[in-house]
Amino acid sequence: MSGQKTSNALRVAVAGLGSIGTKVATALDQGIEGLTLSAVAVRDPAKHRAFISGLRRPPQVLPIEQLGEAADIVVECAPSNHLRSIVEPAVKRGKAAVVVSVGGLLDNFDLVDLARANGGRIIVPTGALIGLDAVNAAAIGTIHSVQMVTRKPIDGLKGAPFIVQNNIDIDNLREPLKLFEGSAREAAKGFPANVNVAVALSLAGIGPDRTRIQVWADPTVTRNVHRIEVEADSARFSMGIENIPSENPKTGLITALSVIALLRKQRATLCVGT
Ligand SMILES: NC(=O)C1=CN([C@@H]2O[C@H](COP(=O)(O)OP(=O)(O)OC[C@H]3O[C@@H](n4cnc5c(N)ncnc54)[C@H](OP(=O)(O)O)[C@@H]3O)[C@@H](O)[C@H]2O)C=CC1
Ligand SMILES: O=C([O-])CC(=O)C(=O)O
């Protein structure tokens, strides 16, 4: 398959074929109005050969840095340390980058300026969260506070840098333990694979320094639970979501579906919701 543009369909590339990327690539291959899967990037091509060759129209396999050449929209679904290598080449060429590792954006915020200067775009899906439409709307007025509480099962938190660095034993917990309380920016450093949602919430609202979050390790829950309270001059609202973990216990199943829903809107005739 060539990444050359042969129709007016938007070419979409997917970086990373893990829990989110495989579902997004499959949905594109099965057909999303006006979009075509042009390329993917993987760490280990041998591991993903069967999946890629099993697609109806197998895309090119490229290094992550080259996806921006082969696509109009690059969907970042890799660990956050690869964010820059994926997003920079795309936005430099005036392409759109859909970013799921939103926490990684905070240390690479110059990419937003780069996109602006080159006519590119960085699009953050609602992901594993809820209600960013309302937060966006409230932010047009004045939001006084945004508070979030995240509870995850033990398996969903294992290996988080905050837990490792502070030598916290979560394996034998019998009761919920508050691990962290602070800003979304600090939380993203300590839990890079766990609180992308808090960063997305903060970018929709009052920013990563004023958005407050608690992170709990909770042996009594089986889902990734996020509760949010927003106090604004237009409204007060509470939101909650209980995500079923995917094959990656850190990642809720709804995350890939949120990306697919966002892609569907790119060329859809009927768009509902902001
Ligand atoms: N915004 C949101 O609401 C949410 C965001 N996330 C974030 O989304 C991201 C993806 O999550 P998820 O799909 O669960 O993660 P996975 O670990 O399941 O998948 C990541 C994939 O990236 C691949 N990868 C690693 N290095 C490279 C590389 N150099 N080039 C290409 N591919 C590479 C891995 O390859 P391999 O298979 O070979 O190891 C793997 O397939 C994470 O950063 C996660 O924290 C997660 C949940 C919610
Ligand atoms: O899937 C979830 O519930 C949230 C998550 O991992 C993240 O924000 O990184």
From TrEMBL:
One Pfam family recorded for the sequence: Asp_DH_C
Protein name in the entry: L-aspartate dehydrogenase
Aspartate dehydrogenase domain: residues covered: 174-260
Organism from which the protein derives: Bradyrhizobium frederickii
EC numbers for this chain: 1.4.1.21
Active site residues of this protein: 226
Family designation: Belongs to the L-aspartate dehydrogenase family.
Gene Ontology MF terms in the entry: aspartate dehydrogenase [NAD(P)+] activity; NAD binding; NADP binding; oxidoreductase activity, acting on the CH-NH2 group of donors, NAD or NADP as acceptor
Miscellaneous remark of the record: The iminoaspartate product is unstable in aqueous solution and can decompose to oxaloacetate and ammonia.
